[in-house]
Amino acid sequence: MRPNFSEVQRIFQTIDTDRSGFVDTVQEFQELMKHAGVDPSKGQSFLQACDFDGDGKISVQDYLRYIYLKINHPTTPEFVMFLAADSDCSGSIDPKELYSMLIKLDAMYQKYTEPQLQQMIHQITGGKGDLNLQQFTQLLKVIGVPTK
């Protein structure tokens, strides 16, 4: 199911009161949360879920992607981690993205070098390239990343 892009864009433009092209003020962010039906106490989690490029503000593209994912995908811990790791929004995880995610998670995962992770990815994918969600979930189990 696809969200109605023009409707999402219209709503976003209404919320973007300073016309910056971003939800980047406290008031705009609170209004966006209210529109999305998000509990105000979940503000930080909502920002992380929407801010796909990590710039600290939400663009209409960020919000559209959030709406699409909310409609179409379950929010399992593995899926949320997959989205966070997929920094180029390609739909797959490459060794650099995996390495960056592990560094952000905890120092204990820094024991894996990028070449080691590349080898693990090669083994899991059978040499076919980057990780999809299912393969990513499998790799998290192999290296012991808790997902609960």
TrEMBL record:
Keywords: Calcium, Metal-binding. Ca(2+) binds at D16, D18, S20, F22, E28, D51, D53, D55, K57. The keyword Ribosomal protein does not apply. InterPro entries: EF-hand-dom_pair, EF_Hand_1_Ca_BS, EF_hand_dom, Parvalbumin. Pfam families: EF-hand_5, EF-hand_7. CDD domains: EFh (cd00051). It comes from the Eukaryota. Residues 3-39, 44-73, 81-108 form the EF-hand domain. One of its GO terms (molecular function) is calcium ion binding. Belongs to the parvalbumin family. This is EF-hand domain pair-containing protein. It comes from Trepomonas sp. PC1. The lineage of its organism: Eukaryota, Metamonada, Diplomonadida, Hexamitidae, Hexamitinae.
